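Re: How this chain folds, sequence and tokenised backbone to follow
How to read it: Take the token row as a discrete description of the fold.
Start of record: The labelled sequence and token lines come straight after this line.
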Amino acid sequence: MAAETFGLISLVPPLLAIVLAIVTRKPILSLFLGIWSGAVIFTGGHGFVQTLEWVAGSIGDESLFNPKIMMIVLFLGAGVALIWRLGGAAAIANAATSRLDTQRKVGLGTWIFGMLWFFGDYSNTAIVGTTMREIADEMRISREKLSYIIDSTAAPVATFGISSWVVYQLSMIREGYDAAGIEAGADAPAAFALFLQSVPFNMYCIFAVVMVGIIVITQRDFGEMLDAEHRSWKEGKVLRDNAVPMQSAEDSLGEMLTDSPQLRYFLVPVGSLIVVVFSGAIYTGLQGAESGASVLDIVGGADFVSALLWGTFTMVSVGIIMGVVGGLADLDEAMETVIDGFSMMLTALSILVMAWTIGTVTTELGTGVYVTNVAEQFVTPMLLPIVVLLASALIAFSTGTSWGTMAIVTPIAVPLAWSVGSGTPELLPAAIGTVFSGAIFGDHCSPISDTTILSSTFTGADHIDHVRTQMYYAVTVLSVAMVMLLVWGATNVTPLVLLPVGVGLLYGLVYALSEWDANRKGVVPQAGRAPQEVSASDD
């Protein structure tokens, strides 16, 4: 049966999974039921066999992308476990404690750390989340707030850095060119040049990173995040009562193996990860490059996923060697820690597999094609960025995958932008930038998103609480991005001028919403001012 024939009913599986996840707070069960409903629709029968085949296919996809991601997640868990038990994470926290002695400083430190770790969203959430969680707890920063800071400086930052995200985005641009029959360099800019032109139009990602800075500097919150922060400030409860946090290092791994934590047990394993990832990316880029290739060609041909796999394996290997040689653990203890690290990631892996499978379901039912085709009916040059943005957002929210959304929408958005732009590349940067923006917004708001799941995991937050609190901020950022894109569509003024205007509007919204919500709830310590700092000296 052709995917297009399923039409409106193709929305049922992802929406069922999302609604159940939010209502029941049981993401694995909710995802499974969504997958099963899709199998029932697809087969017209009980769907059990199709459900299991889809799950198995998601684990072992032909491209080996998903198996590699699973290995990366496992190795990240093992590496974090080793760094934790050898005292590396505690050493970083101890070194930071003397400087990061207020909520604002801890928030700023986490924000900056997240922006510096730009080459991968998975490793970003693992390293930054694990490193900052303990000191954030000491400062009474809620787990929901910490998860938000990390989640909003993971994928958004990776879309601009030297990372697998950029390589993937370049490949999607090439797919779009092929779909539109566009010849790069002759009809339109080369893929990398178009990517650079699209960056100012990727307003959600830019404003999302800026929003984190505004929130942590002003110490102003609204929505359910205000409730979470007020609970944490006043009661010292970084998690709400009856919360079900994702697994964390201390819960799964027990006590450290040393009473004298040393920085080298963090810096050397993490340093080896960075060196191997960058070296691996350069190596794979050179392997596929022709003689005399430019740096951009080498970066564009790099296999960052494989490089990250090699890097995470190296981090684990170096951690084992350091622990054994340094006398902190024998080989049995080191290997037990590795296995414990694997175990710590089982919940996240289970949700990841279910999330990938629901993506398969939506592909088979034609959910993305249906949503995009509906959106096409409303497209004009002025509305093109908004239509592409909202279509990408809805698909990413429904499927939980930003990369899958890019794969679905880009080959449709590029020909659409080419056609609406009268056969010129004028609208291509806006189309590409808004595909990426919408995909990551939907990813941030979806309880079945892999990066959102991992953010909850490595900060030890209740996953649904993280999604619910973050959604208020994500919608605020999206609203500002939409206003700026509408202004661009109406005036064609350069987005480089609109970006600082958007930042100002974002600040004004944060101020106004925090004032209104805090006064409405009566939780502002001093009327009209940001909540009082909690410092390391407070009880």
